[in-house]
Every structure is written in structure tokens, then in C-alpha cells.
Amino acid sequence: MATVTCFITLSLACLHVTALKSQLFTRLGDLSYSSEPPITYETFYFNQKIDHFGFLEDGTFKQRYLVADKHWQQPDGPILFYTGNEGDITWFCNNTGFMWEIAEDLGAMLVFAEHRYYGESLPFGQDSYSDSKHLNYLTSEQALADFAVLIQSLKSKMPESPVISVGGSYGGMLSAWLRMKYPNVVVGALAASAPIWQFPRMVGCGDFYKIVTQDFAKSGQNCAANIRSSWKAINNISSTASGLQWLSEEFSLCSPLKAKTDAVVFKSWLQETWVNLAMVDYPYEASFLQPLPAWPIQVVCKHLTFDSKVSDYDLLHGVSQAAKVYYNYTGSSSCLNTSQTATSSLGALGWTYQACTEMVMPMCTDGVQDMFEPEDWSFQAFSDECYGMFGIRPREDWAGTLYGGKDISSHSNIIFSNGGLDPWSSGGVTYNITDSLVSIMIPDGAHHLDLRYSTSLDPPSVRSARALELKYFQEWIEKAKTRSGQTGSENQL
Ligand SMILES: *[C@@H]1O[C@H](CO)[C@@H](O)[C@H](O)[C@H]1NC(C)=O
Ligand SMILES: *[C@@H]1O[C@H](CO)[C@@H](O)[C@H](O)[C@H]1NC(C)=O
Ligand SMILES: *[C@@H]1O[C@H](CO)[C@@H](O)[C@H](O)[C@H]1NC(C)=O
Ligand SMILES: *[C@@H]1O[C@H](CO)[C@@H](O)[C@H](O)[C@H]1NC(C)=O
Ligand SMILES: *[C@@H]1O[C@H](CO)[C@@H](O)[C@H](O)[C@H]1NC(C)=O
């Protein structure tokens, strides 16, 4: 069986490509944290060129963006510009509490721009996903050009306002790349949990799953070891019809496993469950991919403390209890659905297309340094899957050529923040490259914890990360203002 690949979404999902069609992606639930303040914004639409890079296709589409200017200090208060990821922009807007919390301090206007092909920003309306011809304009380059053009347009009305880009996950990659490609448009960027190096030959393909495994290993005695043993136990028990039936009942599956191939889907669903838990291992009760308790991996691991002599049945009973922490924390789920791993929907198909074109992110496991079944990375197998789905093939090295790979020291004013618990830190910038390409590590942080609303349960490391991020923002804004004071209206063309 083929390649495992991983898809970022603000969260992300890792899955077997072969299971892609049925088992799409991360779904995101509402965040319902009680301290969350009410937010208000206005919605606007901007006419964007469908193709920024050729002149034959001259059509336009409406890009959605949200503006909150309650705290904006006229006429030159800064603009914090969220570079939208692969999903509905209102969801990212609602979940990026950090921006809402610092807007007043900075006298800043907040803008959240939707990424083309997601949410309402569809270049060809309902036909946008109909075939590869219509999908042809779904690239990060086009998305960055959308952001740059939109910012230039906003700035024509407020030329003295410095703009800082902010984003998390794929949106964090875009935030960093926006500063790299359009330094005339944004004075600096915060790239939170942005795996800009998760591309071929930049980091080890096994690093991601090693971090997932470490999270489980340190959250409970024998926890990672028992998950490592569970795959063989599943293989053994699923080898008979009665075993399949037992598994289906034990895990309260909505659709019973019938054939051995169902067991393959079942295993990749479990694997994705453990990965998702690693991304959302937050210090407080939260509802990001699913409603979960504080430090959910510790709760999961309470069910997986046995020593190695346990029977396959007892082991898998523990695994089912552990999985139900993720799928049934609220006690309201009637059965577990191996076709989904989180609650609401992102632009799943869009991200699959992006992974199948530019965003080639190799992933592999060895079962030794990680707790998963060994699986090599094969670009060829991945490429074949993509060809089967879209009739196009990925370009393995293009992202590295386009965005500089590890040779980015000529750029400036970018903060890369990463959580030590977040598997995506494997592809992140985790050391200081220069004085102005700064890495901020949050050892107790999962996936972009720093962008979330602050809470009384935040570990000190995320509090100081946010304070440092704010300090860099203030420095960039100061510098931009000094400069424009000297030269007249900087940034105006
Ligand atoms: C975001 O919040 C607004 C206002 O609270 C709400 O109307 C909207 O449904 C939310 N969007 C998502 C995707 O959760
Ligand atoms: C496989 O499962 C059977 C029960 O179905 C059990 O008796 C046996 O010990 C298991 N084999 C291994 C190698 O765990
Ligand atoms: C979920 O939890 C509730 C309450 O404990 C329980 O009644 C229900 O059977 C559980 N659902 C599953 C699928 O295990
Ligand atoms: C399982 O999830 C899939 C994909 O979201 C959905 O189409 C299907 O209806 C779900 N099945 C059940 C029984 O909820
Ligand atoms: C990078 O430099 C900043 C500023 O000196 C410092 O706060 C931060 O800890 C450094 N990051 C790493 C990963 O060493």
C-alpha cells in the first residue's frame, strides 16, 4: 500500500493517499472557549485577477476579506493582515485570538483575507473544482499576489499605515513568503507553526512522526509502546471474520469492518487520530478538531499503561477507550466513523490538489523511532496517486526553487514560532537565522498555540512568546514610521 502523506490544514491530517477519496481531511469544529470575547468585523469583496502571471486570461473573481477597525488609530495606525489558509476565512478570523487581543495595544486595523478557491473566494464559482483546467489557478504564488494586490489597494487609502502579515500553519507559510516576495508591501511577518522546510530533501521524512511519538511517550508510561504494538494486534485480529466483527463492536464503528482492506482504512484512521491529538495537545479544554479535555494525550494515555504481556484483545480494548477520548469526550457520539477524524469542514479537495502540485511534503515512518507501521516515502507512488486523481503530477522541487529552501538569510523581519509538541515543528524554522529572521520556540506548545486566545492556563512559554512577538511588531512599526517620516510616503508606488 502506498504512500502516507500529510495535509496541513490549520490543523492537518495525515492519511494514506489511497484512502483520500473517501476519507478526506481534517474537519474543524467551533472553538467554544468561555473567555473568548465577542468579535465584530465587516465583510468586503475585492475584484482579483484570476491570473496574475499571464495576460490572456483577463477575468476576475471576488475575493472575500474581513475588516475590523474598531481600534484603528487614524491616520497611520498599523494593519495586521491575516494571510488566509485553505478554508473559510471567518473560521480563521474567529480562531486567531492573538490578533484580536493586541489590536488595541497597537491601534491596529485587522484584515483577514480569504485564500482563493476556499470559502466564498471561488474564481469560477461552483465550477472552480470541476476539473484541472479550472483548478489551474490554485497556487500559492497566485494567492500571494492576491494578498499583495489587495494590500496595495487598501494602502492607497491609508498610505502611512505599515502592514504586518500574520498566519498559522499553511497560512503561516504564506505570511513568511509574502514578506519574502513582497517586502515593499509588508514590513514584517509572523509565521506561526509554518513548516516552510517540510519539502523534499530539506528535513528528514520521518521527523514529523517522531515528534508525534515523543508526545505520547512522555504523556504516560508505556503509552507509545502500546500504540506501536497495536498495529500487529489489529493485523492478527482482523485476519478472521469474527475478529473483524469484534473490532467493529469494540470500537463502536458506524460501519462494521467487512474485509481485510477495511482494516487498512481503519489503521490509517487511527494513525490520523494520534496525529491530530499531537497537534491539538493544548493545556486547556478546547474544541479545535474535536471537543477535548485539557492535555488530551495524557487522558488518552491513561488507557494505555499495560506492560507488554497483555493479550491482543486487552490491548485493543485500551486503544478503543483511548480513541473514544478523542471521538466521544462530550459523550454524545453514537458511533465512530472511520471516514472522518474531526468535526467540521475545510477545503479538503483544494489542499489535496495543492499537495499534488507544489506542496509536496514527504512523510515516512520506520516503527522504531516512531510508533507507527513502517512506511517509506516514494515520490513516484505519490505522483501516480495524484495523476490518478487530477491528471496532473506534482513538481517535487518547485517549492524549494520558488521560496528559497534553506537559503533564506537574505530576507528580513520574519518571526517563525513553533511549538515543541507540534509535529509540524519538524519542518519549521527552529533556530535563529539572522537578527531579523527569528525563531521563537514554545516547548509546551502544540500547533500555533500562540495565535489562540490567551487563557489563565497558558504555559509561561507561550506568554513570553506572545510578548516577544508583540515587541517585534512594535519595532517594525516604529522603524517603518521613522522611515516614512524621512522619505515621505513610503510604500506608495
Ligand atoms: C465566526 O464568528 C462569527 C461571529 O461570531 C459567526 O457568525 C461565524 O459563524 C463564525 N464562523 C465560523 C466558521 O465559525
Ligand atoms: C492472535 O490472535 C489470537 C486470537 O484471535 C490469539 O490467540 C493469538 O495469541 C494472537 N497472536 C499473537 C501473535 O498475538
Ligand atoms: C459515548 O459516551 C456516552 C456517555 O458515556 C455513551 O453512552 C456512548 O455509548 C459513547 N459512545 C460510543 C460510540 O462509545
Ligand atoms: C461518516 O463520514 C462520512 C464522511 O464525512 C459521511 O459521508 C457519512 O455519512 C458518515 N457516516 C455516518 C454513519 O455518520
Ligand atoms: C532567537 O533570538 C531571540 C532574540 O535574541 C531569542 O529570544 C530567541 O530565544 C532565539 N531563538 C532561539 C530558538 O534560540
From TrEMBL:
InterPro entries: AB_hydrolase_fold, Peptidase_S28, Ser_carbopepase_S28_SKS. It is an enzyme of class 3 (hydrolase). Keywords: Carboxypeptidase, Disulfide bond, Glycoprotein, Hydrolase, Lysosome, Protease, Signal, Zymogen. One of its GO terms (biological process) is angiogenesis involved in wound healing. Gene3D superfamilies: alpha/beta hydrolase (3.40.50.1820), Serine carboxypeptidase S28, SKS domain (1.20.120.980). Coiled coil: none annotated. It is found in: Lysosome. GO terms for molecular function: dipeptidyl-peptidase activity; serine-type carboxypeptidase activity. Its EC number is 3.4.16.2. Residues 1-19 form the signal peptide. It catalyses: Cleavage of a -Pro-|-Xaa bond to release a C-terminal amino acid. Pfam families: Peptidase_S28. One of its GO terms (cellular component) is lysosome. Cleaves C-terminal amino acids linked to proline in peptides such as angiotensin II, III and des-Arg9-bradykinin. This cleavage occurs at acidic pH, but enzymatic activity is retained with some substrates at neutral pH. Belongs to the peptidase S28 family. Homodimer. This is Lysosomal Pro-X carboxypeptidase. The lineage of its organism: Eukaryota, Metazoa, Chordata, Craniata, Vertebrata.
